[in-house]
Amino acid sequence: MKIICNLKAYIRVLFLQCLYAGMDIVYKAALNYDMSIFVLNAYEHILATLVIAPFAMIIDRPIFGMNMFVLGMKYTTARIVATMINALLAMTFILA
Hints:
mainly alpha, 2 domains, 0% strand, extended
C-alpha cells in the first residue's frame, strides 16, 4: 500500500503526458484536414469547459487566490498586474 502511495505522483504525471500526446495527435490530424487554428482553439476551450465545469460545481470551493488577484487589479494599473503575473510564474519556477 505504501508503494502505491509513493507512485501516485508518477502515475498522475504519466497519465497527464499521455493526455498531452493524445491532444497533439488530435491537433495534428485536425490541422492536416485544413481546420482553422482559431476554430480548433475554440473547440478546445469549449471541451475543457464542459469537462471541468461539473467538478467546479460539485467541489464549489472559493478561489481565494483569484479573488485577491482581481481585488489587486481593481486598485492598480494593468502594467503592474502584468508584471505580477510574470513574477508569479518566475517564483513558481524557482520554488519548483
